[in-house]
Write a structure and sequence with these properties.
The protein is α+β, with helices and mostly antiparallel strands and 474 residues long. Helices cover 29% and strands 23% of the residues. α1 packs parallel to α5 (160-171), α1 (21-30) packs across α9 (348-365) and α2 (69-88) packs across α9. It is globular and about 65 Å long. Mean pLDDT is 94; it is low at 466-474.
């Protein structure tokens, strides 16, 4: 057991570094057991890393590398997250995907991809002839030769899952230290001494879920088995007027280098075009570029010319935590009481709950004592921020009971004063306008806050440039 230094906080049984979708999923799973657990996150909120900027698809894993851990965990994770989304109110739509062949060579590959899907345990893929493809997607550009249908690929809200996991974990007693960076780790009396930007913490077991920094946190513990090679993906978000153009996720035939550029609806009622795939030197280089966005528009003109003619609402970029290896870097070292969930590159949102399940069973095998908690709180029901279901401004009964749900503050996204008030009073309140956006959709619409940012910021007690201000209204 780690020695308890006089004056220091008691050592946590488990300390998790990183509160992205992976770290929060692990925290939620460990919260079921009689353990003290702390999450240390450098950002001022949960889900501020790669988790906030992805393509938001709940994958089936049909195209994973057969036999890989990623294949197994994506399949299991999709099943778990589909069930959890229903319980927790996470927006999810089963749109299905069409993997489109544009050349004879690509058309010839569809059979192999279908066979690979079966190897990955996915048996519902089926060929779609060109005439049926155009009947299903009338706005598809000319020249498509056929497609493979993957009916279970789905679109999901990427922001609510980490918030739901963290809320559930916090209610079960997990401690979140946000705005706290881990700077160094040393072995201490059978556990770890963790030096952070806000002082030293002690723990018996350490879990590395640091995303793009998972290699540096691994190195702090003496590991050196992988290096993160950030791969940037730029995306374009089209206006809601484009939504009727697209019925399902339109995938390209992948190459060995990339899954390629897709067109996908979002659960907020927009359409995404992207992502690019470019290796970059910096782990913080989330800038969009003229070349990247230009290449997306070129691809978009081929896939769906009518889409490219629509208004663009926003552009963004995320960094995949790719490594020199082709699989996730998940392992537990019993001797060091250390677990690593790193290198979770392009499927971590889908696989998050399965990664947590797998890592927890590995921790148990390694000696972490897991005794069920008898007093587990129920999973939270999160505020619904999707476009397909009933939003508060549409809910007459809710407005009659509380007039704040009838007062729209963000007109593009129809966000009400009641929702902003609820977010500010939630278990994990936002620290700035970006956090409020991920909880409510405020400022996420076609004006990108041009009209409502000042009013929303005043209501929330934040400065309009996004920084948190002291003293939020109740
Ligand atoms: C362009 C793109 C598209 C994608 N599309 C999809 C998709 O459609 N479906 C899907 O399932 N997945 C997708 N992904 C992948 C998915 O987004 C990631 O796998 C997932 O978000 C990784 O989560 P994470 O928790 O490992 O990392 P992160 O979200 O990056 O979290 C790691 C956290 O660790 C913190 N941290 C780092 N170092 C320290 C430190 N020293 N001290 C304290 N905290 C620290 C960071 O601040 C960060 O918040 C996509 C990714 C990209 C980039």
């Amino acid at each position: 057991m780690t020695e308890h230094r006089p004056g220091a906080a008691a050592p946590a049984d488990v300390l998790i570094v990183g509160a992205g979708v992976v770290g929060t999923a692990i925290a939620r799973t460990l919260a079921r057991y009689e353990l003290t657990c702390t999450v240390i996150e450098a950002g001022n909120d949960v889900g501020t890393g790669t988790t906030k900027a992805n393509t938001a698809i709940l994958h089936t894993g049909f195209d994973a590398v057969p036999g890989s851990l990623e294949s197994r965990l994506v399949r299991r994770g999709a099943e778990l997250l589909r069930g959890y989304a229903q319980q927790a109110g996470i927006p999810l739509e089963r749109t299905g995907a069409l993997l489109v062949a544009w050349t004879a060579e690509q058309a010839a590959q569809l059979g192999e991809i279908e066979a690979k899907a079966r190897q990955n345990g996915y048996h519902a893929a089926s060929p779609v002839p060109a005439a049926e493809l155009y009947a299903r997607e009338p706005h598809l550009g000319p020249g498509a030769l056929g497609a493979l249908s993957i009916p279970d690929e789905s679109i999901i809200c990427p922001w609510t899952p980490p918030l739901a996991y963290a809320t559930e974990a916090a209610r079960a007693g997990v401690r979140f230290e946000l705005g706290t960076r881990v700077l160094g780790i040393s072995a201490a009396d059978g556990g770890h001494e963790v030096r952070t930007s806000k002082g030293t913490r002690y723990c018996r077991w350490l879990v590395n879920a640091a995303g793009l920094e998972s290699d540096s946190v691994d190195a702090m513990t003496g590991g050196a088995s992988f290096t993160i090679r950030p791969r940037r993906g730029e995306l374009i978000v089209f206006d809601k007027l484009a939504r009727p153009l697209v019925n399902s996720i339109l995938l390209p035939v992948p190459t060995p280098q990339t899954k390629g550029v897709l067109v996908a609806p979002t659960v907020y009622g927009n359409v995404l075009l992207g992502p690019t795939a470019q290796d970059v030197a910096s782990k913080t280089d989330t800038a969009t570029t003229e070349a990247g966005l230009g290449s997306l528009l070129d691809a978009g003109r081929r896939i769906m010319p009518d889409l490219v003619a629509e208004e663009v609402t926003a552009t963004y970029a995320g960094l995949r935590a790719a490594t020199e290896h082709r699989d996730y870097q998940i392992r537990v070292d019993p001797a060091r009481r250390y677990a690593c969930a790193g290198g979770i590159r392009s499927t971590g949102l889908t696989a998050s709950l399965a990664i947590a399940e797998y890592l927890t069973s590995q921790l148990a095998d390694a000696g972490l004592d897991l005794r069920d908690r008898p007093d587990l709180p129920p999973p939270p029901v999160m505020p619904y921020i999707g476009q397909a279901g009933l939003r508060p401004y549409q809910d007459a009964a809710r407005i009659a009971a509380d007039g704040a749900y009838g007062e729209i503050v963000c007109h593009c996204e129809r966000v009400t004063r009641g929702e902003i008030r609820d977010a500010l009073g939630s278990d994990l309140p936002p620290a700035d306008l970006d956090g409020l956006r991920r909880r409510t959709r405020a400022l996420n619409g076609r004006c990108q806050g041009f009209f409502c940012a000042a009013a929303v910021a005043e209501l929330a007690g934040f400065r309009a440039n996004g920084a948190g201000a002291a003293g939020r209204p109740a």
